[in-house]
Every structure is written in structure tokens, then in C-alpha cells.
Design brief:
Elements lengths: L12 H4 L2 H17 L3 H18 L3 H25 L7 E5 L2 E4 H25 L4 H10 L4 H11 L1 H19 L5 H28 L21 H23 L2
Antiparallel strand pairs: 1-2
Helix pairs in contact: 2-5, 2-10, 3-5, 4-5, 6-7, 8-9
Amino acid sequence: MMNGRLCTPGDGWLHRLDTRVKVLISILLVVLCAWWGNWIFLAAVLVLEQLMFLADRTPARSVGSVWAAFAPLAALIAIIMALCLNDYGDTTLWRLGWWRVSAQSLTLCGVVALRILDIVFALMLTVLTTSRRDWICALSALRVPYPAASRFVDRLNWLPRWRRAVREARRRQDVRGVRPTPLSRLRRWAIARDLMGRYDDHVVIAERLRGVYIDRGSARRTLMRPAHMRLADWLALFVAVALAAGVVAMIVLGW
């Protein structure tokens, strides 16, 4: 019940790509999109991210849920900016009473909206395609202790686990015939919080029974499938770094 996760099962090229390479690609995209405010570049990155999901055969439901969550947020921020940038820019496109929209303010709002979506999907390239096992193997390869790696993955998947806990609490209330009221919703959240706490306690007990602290001192934990770089991983890493270097050159040269 509480095994909620953001990762969607799959066998596409992104799912098979080494987690460390995916993290580096996500970081490069985030840095470049935060650095360069060229709307053509930002739009091209957004299209590229969607094509990467499509080539990986990532379930459309998962990608669509990201759109459903963040597209309205990006649009709301753009609208608020357009209302606040009343005096920004010289080329007036239209005027409605006191509200004036210029070509410069419209471009700036579009850039901000694209930047938000680009950064979100850059992170989702890794989050939606990396399982708990792959996260732990990659972090272990980077010398992160297993307990810390396990806690990191649990915190990363906190939101879907919380949603599942709330659904379970609602089902329990429905079985008891509890009517939906503001007080019952508060009680539902309290039940969900208790379920989350019990899940965390069970995880800690299970990890201790499996020797989670076995890597203390001279003893080191071994993994059944340790992370290793394949030729495809090295190739993807080279292409990502080369493209990032090309974009940096374009920014420096002022293109």
C-alpha cells in the first residue's frame, strides 16, 4: 500500500541509462536553462525533453501528470508577471484600461514559463526513469553510505507515498461510513500521517534485520547488481557534455 514511487516501470533507453549519467544530464539542462534566457533555445529544450520521453516509451500518463501539475503553475506565474510588468518595454501590443502589454513583457513572461517547464522536465528525466534499486546502486558507487542512500530515495518519493496514504485513510473512513466534512478531512490527514510513520518504522526494522549498518568499519556492503558504465552510457555522457559545451560557447559568443 505504501510503496508509492515517482518512477514508472519501463525498459527504454532512459531507464537503462546509468543513473549517474542521467543525473549529470539533468544538472546540465537545469544550469543551461537557468543561465540562458533565449526563448528559441528554451523551446527547443522542451521539445527535446518530450522527444527523449517518447523515445524511451515513458508512459504518457506519467508525463501528462507532470504537465497537469506544472503547466497551470507556469501559466499562472506568467499571467501575474504580465500584470506586474505594466510599464515594461516600449513596443505596445495592446492596452486594456490601465493594463498595457508590450512585446518585451510578453517575451519575458514566455521565457519564464518555458524556463520553469524546462527545469521541471529536466529533473523528471531522472526521477521518472530511475528505480529505487538504481538510485541506491548509483549512490553506493559514489561512496554514499547505504542508510543515507535509502533515506534519500524515501524522501524523493515522499509525495506519492503521502498520496497513497491519504487514499488509504479515505478508504478506511468510507468503510466506517464517515461523512466528508472539514473535520473528517483533518482526521484523514492525521491517519495518513500515522500510516507514514508506521511505514518508516517498518522500513527501519527491515533494514536493520538485513544488516543495513554492515558497512561500518572494515566490512563493506556488497551489491548484487553494482552500477557500472556501459559503452552506451559513455556515449550518452560524451554527447551531453559536447552539446553543453556548444551551448556555453554560443552564450559566451553572444549568439
